[in-house]
């Protein structure tokens, strides 16, 4: 079977989405052929060319403002007319977010299901990953990423059979309060590097 992996993060380096796709691919049997595409840097034509030759497509992206990053929405809109006459491609999705709770990703997953209806892609399955900032802290399947490893084992089985299944919600094997504390320290450090004081990070602007 042919599989297209699409990275949905705009980051050039260090993206969690790309990391998750590579970890998933490690678990996929070597007999399957993989095509790799980048939503921010590859043309819609070249991505479509991979997709039309594939049985399964896996898109991994970060949650942006409870939704899909805008560059990826644009790509999806561009692919829509091209995919209209394609049949038999199953879509799998991995969404990761900064919040600890995986459920934050559900609206974006529903949007991807709508896209399947628009394009004729078959809905496969989604993995919703909470605390995405931690996903690269350990190899998938170990330590804080133990739950993630188990979910990927299930996802791989479903991809290889082109099965459709319910969303898998994944939180790390790590306490929520510690994750929040670490995130807080991270924000303060980043703020300082950019010339901001702690209280500057709390400023709320009136958007009227
Ligand atoms: C512009 C922007 C908007 C974001 N919006 C959300 C959000 O609404 N909810 C959330 O939990 N995380 C949000 N995040 C955090 C990212 O989803 C998180 O950092 C993710 O791990 C990044 O994945 P990537 O490395 O693949 O880009 C946002 C990040 C950015 C840069």
Describe this structure in words.
- It is built from six helices and six strands.
- By secondary structure, the chain is an alpha/beta fold.
- The chain folds into two domains: 2-174, Rossmann fold, CATH 3.40.50.360; 176-208.
- The chain has a six-stranded parallel β-sheet, sandwiched between helices.
- The model has no long low-confidence stretch (mean pLDDT 96).
Write the layout of secondary structure elements.
Layout: E1 2-7, H1 16-27, E2 33-38, H2 44-52, E3 56-62, H3 70-83, E4 90-96, H4 106-119, E5 122-129, H5 146-161, E6 168-170, H6 176-193
Parallel strand pairs: 1-2, 1-3, 3-4, 4-5, 5-6
The chain binds flavin mononucleotide.
Flavin mononucleotide binds near residues 11, 96 and 99.
